């Protein structure tokens, strides 16, 4: 009923789904992910070979030694064999040799990743995990932003890796962008580091990989690997204080006279809260709600009205602004390029 | 040659029909019993109930994940579901069902009339059962994270500091803690009992070298339980102190350590995997030889490998923590320790293959599930090797690949072997055969459902899907895989219903089994089915590893082989 064409179709859909995923671990674009990919191909090859040999033996044994008499009839019992030290020794020693080989290959990648020498030119970024968003700060550049990380691409001939120094403000989180590197946990009271070095520009997606509370699912990561020129432009733009547009003075007033300022910072204003994301350049971001919805005026309005609309369990409370005030605040935030 | 009690000489005193009793009398009898068989059955019954409950939780999760951005359940409910599913399956299905079989079988297999401490046995059961009820009472009595939901929602390994009162202010985490504390006490009691029974209650002639492999493996499992459950219990008490007395073991806001909890949990958690899988090996060691009609290949190597696995499994826990930042030295060590455990495990697989080799394999439902176990355990072991490679684990850890891997162990290996054990020992327990026809339907349906679900579940992990997310983005290419995975779950549910039906139907209508329906070799088959409360009218004595084989094959008894084995050793000792 399900012809060969159907199966082919299904296989094609499956394969295309594999290829189309923006978070495929087998499509690395930078060094740590690259060397992990190489090692994993070796491991897949060895385990695949072991599988074929052992499963083949199992199949052979099941066919060759199946009982040929119908149940209930008396048959001669097969000869009883209790063991053989030589044979058992051989299937102890051969696996040990495979383990040694695999271990050496693994140790090499562990040390080349976690013990790599940090180049002087490396970019430093501090990553703080929060329920349920990411805070990024560039200590040497004086930039603080959230959820969308901009880094320069790393030319393989002149590597320019980005070093992430990570910790958490509340519960455990884990930073995972599969095409760039494996994951590293963000743990309160502990500082971890990892590095990434994407070799082609583009947007790389990921998300929190350690259960951190109700909205763990929508703690998404977006990494923009920019060309050196566009990264420099982004840096100088982010270093500016917040735009002061007189057309949205009313929205700014409402923002500054509400609880917004106790959690959010907008540099150059009275808003200096640290609990929520820095909004100084919020309008320059593509998404809001840590990557879960596009940054459009309608979405922003809806989020300010009640964050639980997109992210039930988010820690920002509904602001209870009336429709007029909501419009004004949304307009104000929209000017913060 | 040692003397033996032939099976036929066992006095059958149960033929007389007992008068029908009032249901309250029956209930009183079960509640107050200290008989190892009744306690074993209560363990099995209660874990089967929890199996259905936790299975329904899994189905609800699979409905939610079938399509992206689904609104079937809220995140609060979903987080409660996966916490309850994991906790229930490990502590209130896996442990009790395996200890239930152990309780039932160990005294019968070593020719004893009961466990060493029958009242401790009853205490262990009731306190574990109370733990399970307490866990589920949280649906009525406790609110979750930030007062959300109404069940524990901190994940089954409940990483600190999510469990601190700041993040989890209600009582649901307390119910979780208390439930595990109580079940841990019960587990240690049962483990103690199994060790004491195995050491002290063996019938005459049952030397340790003649112990059925099932009993050996339960001995190792019980030893592991002593070492592993202690740290878990200690950690639960520390967590309670943190939450109510103001200590700061795991309270990161006051300088405590989140990583300390991870160490405590996984130094329990990884041996726990072996506590669960060794009994599955134990069943395979009995069932595969009987249906291949051959003695187990390499008995001493099987014992040594089991003990080896027991010891090595105590030194691998931090492979759950490769991404925590322990540094390259620790990651290298735990990679090596984890890889080494594949050596004794490999010995077991090869010895099972060698047992099948040259045999006459009978494809009964029990054997088919055992073969399914062999095949799936092979794959689970190989994905385990992939995960032991620390850099590969940086990608795969906490993704759906890991979820698929450990379900391959827990369902593909352990649950398949539990089903096999049901088909094999149900006739002994009830006196009636399970329907083979329904059993084969059950096997094939469950096999298809299992592979559809758990083979394909590896893929979203490779495509970057982390575990424990209540929904996912549509653009990640995960949907088709999740859809297929969910449909496989439905097939498994149907197969399980078939199994439940088979158990009920066969209890009343199944063919009468007789004492030894499988032409098997260990002592439990020498008494009636079901066995009388005193097990053996006359305590048997044995002269080899397979006493009933020797009885049935006086021309080629195992005891001859054991004599041959021991003679050269004696000679060499004399020559010293």
What does this protein look like?
The complex is a heterodimer of chains A (337) and B (576). Chain A has helices spanning 4-20, 31-64, 85-114, 228-239, 249-256, 260-263, 297-305, 323-334; strands at 123-130, 133-138, 143-146, 148-152, 162-168, 173-175, 184-186, 192-196, 202-207, 220-226, 287-288, 293-294. Chain A is of the alpha+beta class and 337 residues long. Among the domains of chain A are: 123-237, Immunoglobulin-like; 246-334, Immunoglobulin-like (Sandwich), CATH 2.60.40.420. Chain A has a 5-stranded mixed β-sheet. In chain A, strands 4-10-9 form a 3-stranded mixed β-sheet. The N and C termini of chain A lie far apart (58 Å). The model of chain A has no long low-confidence stretch (mean pLDDT 91). Chain B has 18 helices and no strands. Chain B has 576 residues and is mainly α. The longest helix of chain B is centred in the N-terminal third of the chain and has 35 residues, at 75-109. Chain B is globular and about 70 Å long. Chain B is 66% helix and 0% strand. Chain B folds into 2 domains: 34-540, Cytochrome C Oxidase, Chain A (Up-down Bundle); 541-571, no CATH class. The two termini of chain B are 26 Å apart. Chain B has helices at 23-32, 36-65, 75-109, 118-141, 172-200, 213-244, 258-292, 299-312, 328-340, 342-356, 365-388, 390-396, 400-430, 436-456, 458-462, 479-509, 547-552, 558-575. The chains are: A alpha+beta (337), B mainly alpha (576). Chains A and B meet through helix 1, helix 2, helix 3 and strand 9 of A and helix 3, helix 7, helix 8, helix 9 and helix 10 of B.
Number of strands of chain A: 12
User: How many domains, in number, for the residues of chain B?
Assistant: 2
Task: Give the strand order, joined by hyphens, for the main sheet of chain A.
Answer: 3-2-1-5-8
Helical segment count of chain A: 8
Q: What would you report as the Rg of chain B, rounded to the nearest angstrom?
A: 24 Å
Oligomer: heterodimer
Measured between the Cα atoms of the first and last residue of chain B, the distance is 26 Å
Counting helices, strands and paired strands, the structural category of chain B is: mainly alpha
**Percent range for β-strand residues of chain B:** under 5%
- What's the CATH H-level superfamily name of the largest domain in chain B? Cytochrome c oxidase-like, subunit I domain
Task: Compute the CA-based radius of gyration of chain A.
Answer: 28 Å
Shape of chain A: elongated
> In terms of per-residue confidence, which ranges of chain A show pLDDT below 50 for 5 or more consecutive residues?
none
Question: What's the architecture of the domain at 123-237 in chain A in CATH terms?
Answer: Sandwich
Largest sheet of chain B: none
Give the integer mean of the pLDDT values of chain A. 91
State the helical fraction of chain A: 25-40%
Distance between the termini of chain A: 58 Å
Reading the helices and strands of chain B in chain order gives HHHHHHHHHHHHHHHHHH
CATH class descriptor of the domain at 123-237 in chain A: Mainly Beta
Poorly predicted residue ranges of chain B: 1-9
